[in-house]
Amino acid sequence: MRTIIDMNHQMVKVTSTFDDFTRNLEVALGRLDPTIIQKVGAEPAFVEAHLKQMGGEEDLILFDIQNHGQLLTILGTPKKAKQYVVGNPLIAIKMTQHDIRAALYAPLRVLVYEAADQSVYVEYDLPSSLFGQFGNAEVTKVAKSLDLKLVNLIAKVDKFNLSQSTK
User: Fold this and answer.
1) Which tens digit of pLDDT belongs to each residue from 48-88?
2) Partners of 14 in the beta sheet?
């Protein structure tokens, strides 16, 4: 079966430098401890409690960073570009409990890069357009909250030096 969906792709120009924005983003996000997830079968309440503590700004957690720009060094032309894998397992299960296919897009991907003119952009697919394809009101409701979380996260990271915060 093939489904064609409309995608709402976001491109946000930020005022921070690439290095400042990515550093602050990495400080703002909570960090996933994969060893905690491994305990979910035996200790689900323990895992839930720890996941609640892992959330950073907007309750989002950093799963991984792919430094795509650095890979271009292979061709002799490195660039500043990082893909961030962000989300929160506790938010994801609010969707996957209603439609397991939502796991295809959770966690989310966010790309931060510096253009040739040194402008810095953040790009991502709007969660409500990714998850909205499943036609489930409960999934869409959570996805719309993720839309707002990403908008707020980008604005906070761009406006403040979060590395100085006490959070």
Assistant:
1) 999 999 999 999 999 999 999 999 899 999 999 999 999 99
2) 120
Rounded (10°) CA dihedral 94, 109, 43, 45: -40
What's the pLDDT tens digit per position in 72-81?
899 999 999 9
The total domain count for the chain is 1
Kindly state whether residue 4 falls inside one of the protein's structural domains.
no
Q: Is 66 helix (H, G, I), strand (E, B) or coil?
A: strand
**What is the edge-to-edge ordering of all strands in the sheet holding 81-87?**
9-14, 120-125, 108-114, 81-87, 61-66, 30-31
DSSP H/E element including 95: helix 89-96
Any domain includes 2: no
3 assigned to some structural domain: no
Q: What domain range is 34 assigned to?
A: 9-164
